[in-house]
Amino acid sequence: xxxxxxxxxxxxxxxxxxxxxxxxxxxxxxxxxxxxxxxxxxxxxxxxxxxxxxxxxxxxxxxxxxxxxxxxxxxxxxxxxxxxxxxxxxxxxxxxxxxxxxxxxxxxxxxxxxxxxxxxxxxxxxxxxxxxxxxxxxxxxxxxxxxxxxxxxxxxxxxxxxxxxxxxxxxxxxxxxxxxxxxxxxxxxxxxxxxxxxxxxxxxxxxxxxxxxxxxxxxxxxxxxxxxxxxxxxxxxxxxxxxxxxxxxxxxxxxxxxxxxxxxxxxxxxxxxxxxxxxxxxxxxx
Length: 286
Description:
The protein is 52% helix and 14% strand. By secondary structure, the protein is α/β, with parallel strands linked by helices.
């Protein structure tokens, strides 16, 4: 693999594109908001005016777009211009139906080779090439896509050979991430409401069985009231909705996830949608 197109250069896609460039690949980028793609020219990327132009002559395509609908729309425009047999790594977080049915069918219609490959991580891991790829595809596609994954990720977890299983694991993982961020916000808000310094809570759990670095990362942001986005509240609203839908579809009780999703929606409705997901803290404060 030598030439790669990255479609979608927001917080995650831009970092992934830079990681691909550092690995020595030729990278063409496209974004619906052209200025976001244009910024990557200084890093050595070629900037395309349309998605179709971006994929012409490439070996691989990476999609990092908002949801399944936007992925399907963009790739329906792009794939007719891509080489037959182009490798498509779909890294966006989408629904189970999108990941396992709709998008593989779209790939098959145009002769593309589809890899279900959502990623774990946010802005900094994307910029540093330290994401975790959760991949699912037929076995013969693993070797061809490895150079791409090695450029963007510290680790690839091959979940199965069934497209959609990577997304299943992503929703499982994000159910934990969203819940732990909301639980941290709840604890810090409660500490303040009870007249305690919330830092004492973080210091108390430090090094214990329930401690994680993520609690301190997000907890410190909540205490400071500063939320530069690594992964936005709006993104958490979208993902918790997908998770709750997957839970209901699978027969899993979604009561807790519905409550977590409700707190993220409350924060978004309060004008914090573009801030980091740690701003869910705002939903717990009067």
